Amino acid sequence: MAYTIQLIVEGFATGSIYGALALAIVLVNRSTGLINFAQGSMGVLATFVAFGLVQLGAPLLLAMLVAFVFAFVFGAGVERFVVRRFEGGDPDTAVVVTIGLFVLIAGIAALIWGYEPRQFPSLFPPQSIEILGVFISLRSVGTIVVLVAVMALLQVLFRFTKLGLAMRAVADNPQSASLSGLPVSRLLMVGWGLAAVLGALAGILVAPQLFISPTMLDFALVYALAAAILGGLDSPLGAVVAAWFIGIVENLAGAYIDFIGDDLKIAVPFIFMLVILIARPQGLFGRKVTVRI
Amino acid sequence: MKNLLARPIVRLLLAVVIAVVIIVAPISSSSFINYQLSLIAVFAVALLGLNIVMGYTGQVSLGQSAFLGLGAYIAAYGVRQEWPVVVIFLLCCIIPAAVGLLVALAAARLRGLALAMVTIALPIIGVPLAKRFPDFTGGSVGSTVSWLEAPEGSGLADDQFRYYLVVAIAVVLFILGRNLVRGRIGRAFAIVKSNEAVALSMGISPYRYKVLAFTIASLFGGASGFLYIAVVQYTSPETLSFATSINLVAAMVIGGSASILGTVLGAIYFVMLPVVAGQIDSSRTALISGAALLLVLFLLPGGLVSLPRRIAQLVRGGRGGSPRSRAAADRPPTGDTAPRTTAAPEAEKQPR
């Protein structure tokens, strides 16, 4: 039983990392209506910036803050100079654009830092704590706490600030927002910048475990996409709940179902995704949309 | 130039010249070049399948490598079991097509991005699955076969024989594919791509045609897997990896979406990129590939195949047009006309 609980908590923590990335995907999708396949590699690039600073002797927290700033500027820049040309056009072309970005940014990271995985310092102490006979690592607890805090912050941003209200208006209807005097293009840049910060956060949280390399977040991105689609692409809460669900179910299935094991556990979220999408194409928490012709 | 190309006699001559070059090329080339040329034919078939579902029907598929890999595994298994070549080839077409049909029956209910996600799952689940059945696949080591040696007395080296076989099959598949997309089914694909509601009102079921397009794409993927084993004689989980799928999508767009000639150009790009990048620095393949893809999307939305038309456009624009009208021509054709740009965001928003 203790082992099961441990597995669940660990799944929760892994799910939190997927959740951060899934939130980024939802944020981008809500503001620009695109799926950003480059979200993971953008996060990796920012993590590498933090890595470079740590190597130069900067404290981890400072390096992390610089990485966040870098990610924000980089994300906003990508929106402004690359993605904007393809917004409102053919959505398939836009998907291919982000795939191109994904390949290109991973290539840039590899060019500077190479492909071999390297160690990255952890934000949390390596100890475990014992609660009622269950050992839980501080890293897991820390990751979960960080994600919950981020979600709360995003809620506050979107519910109680002018910026959040403006971003919601742009997501809802760019034309009306523009007519009522909102700087739509700048708000889109902010949306992409915030999403990139979330990606950087996911990268920094996961790097101590996976070791940092240009392809570090590829699998996490796939899980995050699955979570975003499961939860409904327009629902931040749905995406995070789905990410937790995926993390836990995957961990349990990998441990308890012999055929699945450690290597095939990646199939689990996809099977769930397929079943749920066929029953509810808009996702678990998504709004159903009707198409006007 | 254009008028000249439009004349049937010129086209016929051009086709004859190309055919002669294709036939003569392997005789005077080294076995390395023959190998590369054969690989171009192999991936051209995979790209043709991808182009049918993505370029012509407008459904993003990120899973083409799974069918390529499946076809390759079936071929390798068949060779080890010493089945007749024709049987192997047919199985390489039928089984991936059946798998593709099953996936499509579920996935074609979904729209754009969800479909992309379901197809992403194919290579990602396929790789551990392939490692799980080592008896069939050879596990992570992969499986090597040795077959299709040049028949005695033909006077051909093995690489030349394989080249002719692979190119012949590829040409036949290309003729079939071309007839498909130019015919009734191809027109149905085009209307499903441009507007599903209109398709429905014309009595064309978008669902059925999406399933059909996906199944045909899987069939071509499986066939190219057979050709892959014929040329490379080896396959491993690497063949069906997600990276292969991404590179195939990139190559398709770079060559030219919804274009037969563009498919061939894409295959040339796909095969040549690692060779060329390997001479500079193989760790920069990803960098070059990503940059090439974005450059094409920015400058040549129609892919390499639209290069002559684009140059002609620029030359004309350079003489007559103001810089502004040239900037307008730069934009992808979808966003060009005013009513489209105002209507587009709303139309794009609703299906989400």
Description of the molecule:
- The complex is a heterodimer of chains A (293) and B (352).
- Chain A is mainly alpha-helical and 293 residues long.
- Chain A has a single domain, classed as ABC transporter involved in vitamin B12 uptake, BtuC.
- Helix content of chain A is 71%, strand content 3%.
- Chain A has a two-stranded antiparallel ribbon.
- The mean pLDDT of chain A is 87.
- Chain B has 352 residues and is mainly α.
- Chain B has a single domain, classed as ABC transporter involved in vitamin B12 uptake, BtuC (Orthogonal Bundle).
- Helices cover 77% and strands 1% of the residues of chain B.
- Chain B contains 17 helices and two strands.
- Chain B has helices spanning 2-6, 8-28, 31-56, 64-80, 85-107, 112-132, 134-137, 158-182, 184-194, 196-201, 206-232, 242-255, 260-280, 285-299, 307-320, 323-330, 338-349, and strands at residues 143-144, 234-235.
- The longest helix of chain B has 27 residues, at 206-232.
- Residues 320-352 of chain B have low confidence and may be disordered.
- Chains A and B meet through helix 4, helix 9 and helix 11 of A and helix 6, helix 12, helix 14 and helix 17 of B.
Topology:
The complex is a heterodimer of chains A (293) and B (352).
Chain A: H1 2-32, H2 39-55, H3 60-81, H4 91-113, E1 128-131, E2 134-137, H5 138-160, H6 162-172, H7 174-179, H8 184-210, H9 218-231, H10 236-256, H11 267-279
Antiparallel strand pairs in A: 1-2
Helix pairs in contact in A: 1-5, 1-8, 1-9, 1-10, 2-3, 2-4, 2-8, 3-8, 5-6, 6-8, 9-10, 9-11
Chain B: H1 2-6, H2 8-28, H3 31-56, H4 64-80, H5 85-107, H6 112-132, H7 134-137, E1 143-144, H8 158-182, H9 184-194, H10 196-201, H11 206-232, E2 234-235, H12 242-255, H13 260-280, H14 285-299, H15 307-320, H16 323-330, H17 338-349
Antiparallel strand pairs in B: 1-2
Helix pairs in contact in B: 2-8, 3-8, 3-11, 3-12, 3-13, 4-5, 4-11, 5-11, 8-9, 8-11, 9-11, 12-13, 12-14, 15-16
